[in-house]
Amino acid sequence: MTFSETILSWYRENKRELPWRDTKDPYRIWLSEIILQQTRIAQGTPYYEKFLANFPTIEHLSNATEAEVLKLWQGLGYYSRARNLHATSKTVVQKYGGKFPSNYIELMGLKGIGDYTASAIASICFDEPRAVVDGNVYRVLSRYFGVEIPINSTKGVKYFKALAQSVMDAEHIGDYNQGTMEFGAVQCVPKSPDCPRCPLNKSCLALQKNLVDRLPVKMGRIKVRKRYFNYLVVMDRAGKTQLRQRLGKGIWENLYEFPKLDSDRELKQKQVESSLSEVLQLEEPPLVYQYGKGQVVHKLSHLHLHTKFWVVETCAELKNGVALSDLEHYPVPVLVANFISSFKNHYF
């Protein structure tokens, strides 16, 4: 059997039962693909089901507020995906009457949809012969064909896309694409794949050349930076606090958080106390103490956030204060959400 025939045969026998597998509804396929970008299936599946329960159609999603979408997305990270999801739902409803474009070119014109997602929707929903290339596909192709070109280089992206197109099964493109991704996720896994039981092992160049552990090749990793966040949890006599919305571009754009002191090194209590006036306007000296011990380290792909939460108690009543019981209605970064959960239990 050819490469594509083997993939299809394996997929039909081994595919996992997933909630988006037995549908060609472009809304559901699009939703699953956006959620599963940079997210494991085990983590993403509950979000997929939660989004469908709240927004069963693209019209429901387009009518939601951004805050509602971000709140539902909370904990998945890479919040630009949620903002783009919301923006694209409005475009599809307003420009296309609620029906997704049925071809790759028009799909590529939608916000947050790149080559991979456009190829997935076009092939699975509309049988357009477009090969998908995601992390799993890169791994399968690089190993089977023994390709040592870095997958995250300009040359590598073009090479693997062309290779994927050349070996795909155009007549069964939806199953083939899902099969190749599934094969990489289940059989040709990143570490210690079960090569003896692999149906492609007799013709896999990486196995023949002892390159399985070295492929795919990826160029140097991004240097991780450190930043230090000191969140100021202001509490007044009425048990209300302050939240501020993050404006401007950034990974947490339009999410809410407590006022904070941002620095390039760890701040001690006296430094926090002397810097309060930079971000807070309080009429009298407050009582300041750290909640919990040490730092919470929140790791992003390019950034490690060393975070402390400081309770700032004031006798003055806060203007536009937010009750602790209402904090759960605001979309916040997951590290803030975790603090709120712990603090509410402690405070009450």
From TrEMBL:
Gene Ontology BP terms: base-excision repair; mismatch repair
A Pfam family assignment: HhH-GPD
UniProt-recorded Gene Ontology molecular function terms: 4 iron, 4 sulfur cluster binding; 8-oxo-7,8-dihydroguanine DNA N-glycosylase activity; adenine/guanine mispair binding; metal ion binding; oxidized purine DNA binding; purine-specific mismatch base pair DNA N-glycosylase activity
Ranges for domain HhH-GPD: 35-186
Co-factor binding comment: Binds 1 [4Fe-4S] cluster.
Catalytic activity: Hydrolyzes free adenine bases from 7,8-dihydro-8-oxoguanine:adenine mismatched double-stranded DNA, leaving an apurinic site
Parts forming coiled coils: none
InterPro entries, per the entry: A/G_AdeGlyc_MutY, DNA_glycosylase, HhH-GPD_domain, HhH_base_excis_C, HhH_motif, MIG/MutY, MutY_C, NUDIX_hydrolase-like_dom_sf
Co-factor requirement: [4Fe-4S] cluster
UniProtKB keywords: 4Fe-4S, DNA damage, DNA repair, Glycosidase, Hydrolase, Iron, Iron-sulfur, Metal-binding
Annotated function: Adenine glycosylase active on G-A mispairs. MutY also corrects error-prone DNA synthesis past GO lesions which are due to the oxidatively damaged form of guanine: 7,8-dihydro-8-oxoguanine (8-oxo-dGTP).
Protein family per UniProt: Belongs to the Nth/MutY family.
Protein's recorded name: Adenine DNA glycosylase
Organism: Cerina litoralis
